[in-house]
Amino acid sequence: MLWQNDKTRILCTVTHNSDLMGYVALDSSIRDRSTGGLRMHPEISAEEIRILAHNMTLKFGFLGLPQGGAKAGVLGDPEAPRAERRQQLVAFARAIRPLLQKRFFFPHADMGTDNEDIRYMLHQVGLRVMPRELRCTQSGYYTAVSVYVSICQATRHIGRTLAGLKVALEGFGKVGIPLASLLAANGALIVAVSTSRGALYNPQGFKLDNLLKCVAETGSNFVHHFPDGDRIDRAALLELPVDILCPCANYHSIKAHNAPHIQASIICAGANVPLTPDAEHILLEKNVLCLPDFVTNCGGVLGGTMEFASVQKDKIVKFMELHLGARISAILETADKQGRTPHDIALSLAREKFAQIHYYAQHQKPSDKLFQFCLNLYRRGIVPGSLVAPYALPYFERSLA
């Protein structure tokens, strides 16, 4: 492993016999620990993982959750057979075992992986996973909910409703599929979708039930089998005449070269950091409402943490609609009043809250230490969820406030 240390930030280049395997970036820590997704993709760069790790810090800060931000990426094909993918993950875990063993980095599912993959990987390198860890199976859905809540607040902010609005979804997978269902159920028209295999466009809107049936039968290749739409280039989806664009696929898919051609009025991302800074500047000059991605897609972290705390799914969704929705509305109103962008407002908020979290973690009171002790017992399965759930919702409400 090759380490690059910039004050508290660490970037680790992982190799085996001089072959590049991937990267780990530790952007921040709380009590010497950090966490974030471990993704698999054939094209991953050190800069991408570093930026995504910082994005996790912002996400934790925005949500008020005491976690350090990190990210990891393994070079590989996410659509390869599971055994092949897991072999690569285990080899990667062996290379970074010192980080994993001390929990300087604790991985979660991300693009191209799921929590079962992560559990298998950790077990194979002899590391213990607590009974209540890595149990969330709804991360993509919760991310979709936070994107949906963000879209509702954005449309309300500009005096529109979802009914009849045209939506393009870049990435029709773990996040894009449930997001399409939420939007369509409230009157929006899903007119374009894409996967790694291509994209489809129907300006009249897809019949979602038929589309989902084709996805179930053919996977990401549905773009070559579904008859009710025109096959287009994946990049062309971003530039279609739509009201709302939801990037739910790759990092930096919207750049300076294609941003001038985007026609959407609102951009709400399910993906992490889909816009380059130059692209965001261009879109702001075009009066496109861009909500910060560490806000719009925070539902995966928030929902997963609430599920860990034994909160029921329906209560998690209602919590997001009420409390996350109110927070996003406040960001939009403050941005207008101060003549700043929503990204600037949310960024200042996230940084300030994370600094507070970090300070209090370093200056723990006896009650804080007792809380950590009880949390560890719960994580080990000793404390029942029925005792934790009643206190969880007020805790998350205070964290987000």
TrEMBL record:
Domain of life: Bacteria
Keyword flag Oxidoreductase: yes
One Pfam family cited in the UniProt record for this chain: ELFV_dehydrog
KW Oxidoreductase (keyword) present: yes
Domain Glutamate/phenylalanine/leucine/valine/L-tryptophan dehydrogenase C-terminal: 140-362
InterPro entries the UniProt entry points to: Aminoacid_DH-like_N_sf, Glu/Leu/Phe/Val/Trp_DH, Glu/Leu/Phe/Val/Trp_DH_C, Glu/Leu/Phe/Val/Trp_DH_dimer, Glu/Leu/Phe/Val_DH_AS, Glu_DH, NAD(P)-bd_dom_sf
Keywords assigned by UniProt, alphabetized: Oxidoreductase
MF terms in GO: oxidoreductase activity
The family this protein is said to belong to: Belongs to the Glu/Leu/Phe/Val dehydrogenases family.
PANTHER family per record: GLUTAMATE DEHYDROGENASE, GLUTAMATE DEHYDROGENASE 1, MITOCHONDRIAL
Protein name: Glutamate dehydrogenase
Species in which this protein is naturally found: candidate division CSSED10-310 bacterium
Lineage per the UniProt record: Bacteria, Bacteria division CSSED10-310
